[in-house]
Amino acid sequence: MYKLLIVIGITFITKFSFSQDLVEVPPFTKDSTLNSFIIHWIGKPYKLGGSTEAGIDCSQFNKRLYQDVYEIKLEGVCYKQWNQTIRIKRDSLEIGDLVFFRSSQSPSGWHCGTYIGETMFVHAANRAEGVKVSSLMEPRYKAAYKGAGRLQD
Description:
Elements: H1 2-16, H2 32-41, E1 51-52, E2 55-56, H3 58-70, H4 78-84, E3 85-88, E4 98-102, E5 110-117, E6 120-124, E7 131-135, H5 139-144, E8 145-151
């Protein structure tokens, strides 16, 4: 019986799976370069201190996004990214602003991501979730919100 269920499950997955080429992903922002970057990175694994597609942490993810999308060099850790930016209010957030959080799970006590509009931000969340899009309104991020920053021109 158990083997039969496995075969049925594999058949179901095989018959109803689809090519990523056929799926149209709705844009996260009006910036096509940023959208392509996000779509490419979604689901990639988290790794503390990592900086590659095999595993990346939150500050390295911000650094990579800024380099690849905006051709701007960010520092490699959250608190230094915080120091690179000027403080802005949550209701003044614009696409590309950096968002910062307190984190008891991080050795540094920091977590960060990049704001993409409509209360959403993209980040390398943790080992269980990897790179993902989250909302600033989610209880865990709302409670841990430290502030936001914008790079000066």
